[in-house]
Amino acid sequence: MAGALWQGIHREFFREPFAISADLRRTRLLQELKVEHQICDLLLPNDAEPRMSLVVDFSVTEDWVAMDCPPRFPTSAVGLDLLVQSRPSQLPTVWESRLREVRDDLLYIEFPEVIYQKQARRLYRVMPAVDDPRRIELYRTGAPMVLGEILDISEGGTRVRQVGRA
User: 158-166 long-range contacts, Cβ below 8 Å, gap at least 24?
Assistant: First the structure.
């Protein structure tokens, strides 16, 4: 039976609006964690307290993420699911993965299929899908047309970056 902390995180984060399943976005998040040396919390199902770690490396093609092994991490946890929590760009981020092996002071976990990231905004923002059109033309009476690129969309509006004038 999973601990109360584990269950609380699942209730808080693991909902469809917070799901990131696109390979490119998941890879970017992991790259940010790695490059910025962001502290991650690792939580085994029955842990009362998370253990701190760092993303050391990852491979999408080989389906693994290597993380620094915290002191006194139980090697008996191989094969168990664990939760990874972090805050890249100050956005609470969580994913669940399975611990494959402990080798050379590194934990090798499965590359996450879905990462859950909770927006700090009142209205959730999403990036356009890869096959959605991103380039737009903005028109206003009496002004020249402006070319733009959609960065994200929410119920409250769209964030656009100007890329030029026609």
Answer: 159/125, 160/136, 163/135, 166/137
Question: Is 134 within 8 Å of 150 (Cβ atoms)?
Answer: yes
Superfamily of domain 4-117: Electron Transport, Fmn-binding Protein; Chain A (2.30.110.10)
> Domain limits of the chain?
4-117, 121-166
Q: pLDDT, tens digit, for every residue of 90-130?
A: 788 999 999 999 999 999 999 999 999 987 666 667 777 77
Residue whose entry in the numeric block shows the structure tokens 């139980």: 74
- Looking at the DSSP bridge assignments, the partners of residue 41 are 52, 85
* pLDDT digits 0-9 by tens, 123-156: 667 777 777 777 888 888 888 888 888 888 877 7
Beta bridge partners of residue 19, listed in sequence order: 116
91, two tokens: 């956005």
Note the pLDDT of residue 105. 94
Helix (H, G, I), strand (E, B) or coil at 2: coil
Q: Measured between alpha carbons, how far is 140 from 147 in angstroms, rounded to an integer?
A: 12
Q: Is-above-0.85 flag for pTM?
A: no
